[in-house]
Amino acid sequence: MNYFSYLRRLHLKWNTALTSCRSRFIVIVLLTTVLIMALRWSMAPLPEHTVHELDVPAMRQKVKEMMLHAWSNYHRYAWGSNELCPITRRGCRGSVFGNHSFGATIIEALDTLHIMGLKKEYQQGRDWIEANFALDNVSAALPVFELTSRLLGSMLSLYSLTGDILYRNKALQIADKIMPAFDTPTGIPKSIINLKSGHAQSSNEISKVGAQHLEFTYLSDITGNPVYRERVQRIRKMLGNMTKPNGLYPNRMNIRTGKWIGSDSSINRFHDSLLKSWLQSGNLDTESEQLYTDAILGIVQNMLTVSPQGDTYISDYANGSLNHRMDQAACFSGALFAFGAAYDQMKHWEKYADIGTSVTETCHRSYEQTPTKLAPEVLVFPADATEAAAPHQRNRYMLSADVLESYLVMWRLTRDKRYRVFGWKLVQAIEKHCRMPHGYTGIRNVYEMPPEPVDSQPSMFLAKTLKCLFLLFSEDDVISLYEWVLNSGGHPLPIQGENEFYRELV
């Protein structure tokens, strides 16, 4: 972890350096970085099957071709629908956004198209949003978390990337439709809202109610309206003041009383939002930093597990004990630990860096251990740990990307080529088992050969999976992790004070 150590020292020195010294400091940093990277590559050769030089430009071009295949078939067969059903060649109904069509794939894919430089396709999407996107007549109960992270997050990302006022206006429309969900005795939002009536339904998942800080804080900054920040800061303060059993945030809470329901805990996107809120603020949001540090410590002390086979994983905590299960969605946590170790001033950061590496390796093995080389939605590690991750009833793969966020962060922090190799293996598996003549599908069981396809191309595939793959095979200045944070939907939001595209209204 020498490169992690160097990054950490660099971060501390930069924060304490005088402005007049920073130019010389930059030169020294660049020269030293080159030396460290050269030593790392020469001392840690890749396994035999990856010793040949990677054709990274060809990999990047392949991902663009995948994006074009997914987009062009959506454009042809499902334009304006939320998602494409590639096998039946029609618009899909019944996704997380319900049966009402408002172009979720268009909205979610647009920042990916922009980043890839696919101008014609980007313009197609922008024109549709300008002419057609509206939520005024959507009489449907929709999840607040997905509306925030995926629709609002996408519009905010597009505004920061382009400066196009259209996206800021659309972001405001989405946010104002979400706001009635916050009208509860505690300020903790309900998780389901009818966009037309404003009627909201109760829920109590911490991963849903506590992970909206990035979007609403940034929206306040670009509009000058503090109400959005105030809503999420109230949540953050309340959660920070609550007693955490064993230092853990339970998964469920009563949004009327503000009390926990049970003690079951999982690592989820709420923890991710704590770290990224601190990063997004330019390291000024020390409250989020402290909450992140405390939450990660609780997870390490109570949920971190290593099997006899060497698999490091974050077990769910249920009914007072570990159940030795980890959702594939939790595979983002490799990045959570590694990024925190590199940038935060926490104790035991070297251990956390090792945890980030080890969890990422475990998640990668979950792909390697199936005949399709695609991972199930849930990993099960038997309590006696006598075998590797076992099959489970939730064995489908739906083109998800959480492990790719860890590959991306680990690659950019360590320069270890194996993470690009891991990403390329996933590309090959997706192409082999999920590519159809008219788009991409999930598969019903990753343990069956040949796998049975699921007739759905999730919008998240274009929003996050293909974006993370493209960034993995791109130079570091393409959505630099020093200037951007990825929200839970995979949409990049700028870091205040570090990114000229923050576009704060002053």
Automatic annotation (TrEMBL):
Entry's EC annotation: 3.2.1.-
Cofactor needs: Ca(2+)
GO cellular component, one term: Golgi membrane
GO molecular function: calcium ion binding; mannosyl-oligosaccharide 1,2-alpha-mannosidase activity
Name of the protein this chain belongs to: alpha-1,2-Mannosidase
Primary location group: Golgi
Alphabetic keyword roster: Calcium, Disulfide bond, Glycoprotein, Glycosidase, Golgi apparatus, Hydrolase, Membrane, Metal-binding, Signal-anchor, Transmembrane, Transmembrane helix
Transmembrane segments: 21-41
Family designation: Belongs to the glycosyl hydrolase 47 family.
